[in-house]
Every structure is written in structure tokens, then in C-alpha cells.
Amino acid sequence: MSTNIIQDAATFEVFRNAVSGLADEMAITILRTAHSQIVASSMDFSAALCDASGRIIAQANTCPVHLGSIPDAMGAVLEAFGDSIAEGDVYMLNDPDFGGMHLPDIFVVAPTFTGGRLLGFSVTVVNHTDVGGWAAGSMAVQSTSIFAEGIQIPPSRLIDAGITNTTFLDLILRNVREPELLRGDLESQLAACYAGNTGLRALAHKHDRSDFDRLCNELLDYSEALVRDALTRAPDGVYNFVDQIDDDGLGSGPIPFRVAATVSGSDIRFDFTGSSPQVPSALNATASFTRSACYASVQGVLGTDIPANSGFYRPFSFDIPAGSVLNGQRPCARGARGLVAYRIIDTVLGALAPAFPDRVPAAGDGGPNSVAVGVTEADGTSTVLWDILCGSWGATPTGDGNDGISPLGANLANTPVEELEQSGHLRIDGYGYLPDTGGPGTYRGGLSTFRDMTVLHDNTTVQIRSDRRTSRAYGLRGGAPGAASANLLDPGSSTEELLPSKPHMILHAGRRHRQVTAGGGGYGDPLLRDPQLVLDDVLDGKVTVEAALRDYGVVLDSTGARILEAETRVSRTDRH
Fold it and tell me: N or C: which end of the chain has fewer CB within 10 A?
């Protein structure tokens, strides 16, 4: 642990907010200039600033599970190019074996120079709509090899001293379904890096280079000190938990996740020994992605204003077995690895609940549903649509779970209906919440979200990644689990079919699909929930009159608008 002392608190605070604001400026640049719906509307991207050695000094308020992987990507870039890094260069990569996470996530790294010396790097990560492979969207759960998932980009120089390698770029664009979307989103990454580099040079000019380097060191030390101080407030011990993904999409499951979280003074260690071996499908993660999910979990638990940078990571250590689902080895597929991160977060939070009893919520929806829709037009051109559907959070120690919100690790937004319909290939027929789906508790879990769509084009491919069908979102302190997720084909018809949680289908015009996210788990004994809160839920359509009695022991009158207090006391007493 560093013991450096902040020399000038006022200057430090100004610098801290300046670099944080600059990272957010990069993110806003991407948001305003991106071309694809998955970036501009669902916000599946990230941005960060690094110093000359590749350490993160600031992260934007974007996708947490992206950001903890940046140190590995920076390490790969520095190893590949080292002393040849030059002003005007831009590097890119997506290869999971060289700092990437899965192929759709393309890192763009731009070095910043001042006075002829390397000052730092601007880094962006964007989940591109499609990077090739056998399935539209390049994230099919059923992929069994990385060679089926799309184009692999090791650390490469896209721009050499200001000159774009057009042959290299053309090669990439030729291998994807929507080349102009990729080009547009890549240009938004370049614009964000330009904004980051301009801001970094301005900061170095304002503070001069020696002070800039000192302030970066102080910033990392500051984050480390805050994390360590927060960890010392938890009782030392080993905290174990097990959670699971329902299945691998190929017929095998469940996929167990085991963690032993050890808190020792101001250090924390995560040991994932005993977790599932890597699976044949695309539900495998990199070790960097696993670490990133752990950072995001702890950041959420600590809940204080701790700058997320490389100093934040110093108290952590890991045991992530090679060849496990958490550290898959080449040539395993990793396209659907996002679900792995969400389950890591649920597992880690479950382990830390006894250590931080006032901070950890029950489990949420288990990760947003992702539905990739692919259409090939008569002229051979392709359209790829992404429907990102977030469900809800689990209840917290102090309140009900939030509805219709991204899980902790993602920070995404639900795809707007208009974005899905504007191409003319889909119609959205329904979108909302389902009652009685939040896990009952003193505080209720958030509700399931549903979306109904009709396919309007023949031979449309639909790839769905969902979970929490059998392994429902757990409750805490006596709270009940949330409702299970569902995928229904032609719902409400005589041919209604309950689909698996991770199907890949080819549908013709007129076929309908309903997706339902899992509900969040409850927190605390449901019979201790304030009856007025139960009535409020009934009046809001979140809980039915029948469930008020069944799950909470609350008896309402025939109108469902008034609590029968005496009958409620008897009902609850009889159940205890």
C-alpha cells in the first residue's frame, strides 16, 4: 500500500474532478455520435483515461464490467508496440487472448503526447452490432468455437502517425453484416479519443508534466486508501456462496459458480475454485472479465464516492482457475460471456451479504435479456437489430427493488420501441411489467418486464440470451425468490410454446414472441411488510389481491382498496 500524502488538497480535488469529467465527456461524445442502436440507445460502451504506463486514472459512468478489463487491454497494447508508440497512432483489438473480452467489444486506444513525450492514453470500448460469424450479432450462445463468432483482431495499429491503414479497415468491414454501422461507431470511438487526448494535453499544460504525474499517483493512492478503509469495516473471515446459470444453451446444465471471498484487514481475495469447467457453448469469460465483475460488485457494496481507477484494484487478489467458465481457454467461444459476469456479481454479492449486511441487496433479474434479430434482404444486404430488455433489481435492506432498470454490472438502457420498429422488420405489440413477479419480502423485489414482438419478414433469425428460468433470483433474510423468466412463441394461441431460455430460431412473417425477464428477490420476512405498502402495490397493479393474502397475509375488502386490519392480524398470526 502506498503512503504518499496529497500535497495540495484543493489542487488535487480540482484535478480529480477534471479527469473524471473528461472521461464522461468522452462517453457523451460516443453517445451523441454513434450510429447503432445498441450504442446510441442501449449505451453498451465505455470510456477511460490512462497514464503513460497504462494505469487507469479515470473511468466514465458507463458499463462497469467493461472498465475493469482495460488494464489487460492496455498491457497487450504496450507489449505489442512498446517503444514504437507514436503521436497520431491509434490501436484497436478485440481478441480475448490479447486483452479483449468477446469479439463484439472493440477497444480503441489512442496515445497522447505533449512535448514529444508520452503523456497517457484515451481508451474506448464499444459493443459493435455485428463482427461477423455464423449468427447475426456475433453473440450466439450456441457457438462452440471462437472461429465461428466473427473476426478476431489482435492488438493492431489502425492509424499510423495520423495515416489510416485503409486496407486493414476494409478487411474488417468486409467481414461484418452492417459495415457502415461498424464504421460509424468506430468513428465515434475515434472522436471520443480525440476529445480525451485534447483534454489530457490541456491538463498537462495547466499543471506541468511533473505535477500531472504526481497528481495521477495521488489519485490512485487516494482510491486505494478509501477502498482499504471501507474493507476494514467488515469482519475478517471467509464468506462462501454458490449460484448458477441454468444451462449452456446446448442442453447441459446447471453451470455452478462458487466463490470464497476472504476479507483480511484491508485486503480482499476471491477464490473461484470449484466453479464449472468451461462449457462447449459461448458462455465462457476471460479472467479479466471475471475480475472486472468482482470490482463492480465491491464498488456497489462499498457505495461511497471512490474514484474507479487502477488504485481501486490494488486491495484485490484472485484465484480464477484456467479452463473454467470464468477463465476459458482458446479456442472456446465467448460471445455470450455477459451472462457470466451477471452471475459472478450475484455470486459475489451473495457471499458478501453477511460481511456488509446493510449494503447488499437480494438478487436481481440475473442480467438483461438480449435478443439479436437478423434479416437478409433480397439484395444480400443485412439488418441486425438488438433488443436489450432489462428487468429489475432485488430488494435492498431499506427498500423495494427498482423496476425496469439495468443490473449493476451493465448500466444499459432498454432498447426503445421506435428503434426496433423503424426498420420495418418488427412490430412491438406489448411492453410493460407483470404483477406478482417480484419476490415477496419485507421489501419486495422488482417486477418482471415483458416485451411482445411480431416478426414482419420471412426467414428472420432470432437469437435469445436469457436466464433465471430454474435458478430464480435469490432473496435474503427470509425474502422469497423472484419469478422465473420465460420465452413464449405465439403466446395466447393454440400453438403457444414455452421455449428454452437461450434459443436460436428462424421465424417467418407473422410469428410472435414474448420475452419475460426474471423478477427480483425479496428482502426480509414478507409477513413483516407494512400492510399499507402491500395495499399500495395492489392499487398500483404490482401485486394482485390474491397475492396480497397468499404472500403477505394481508386481507383486503371486496373492493381491493381497503385493508381489513383485524383479519390481517389473524392471518399473519396463524402463519407464524
Answer: C
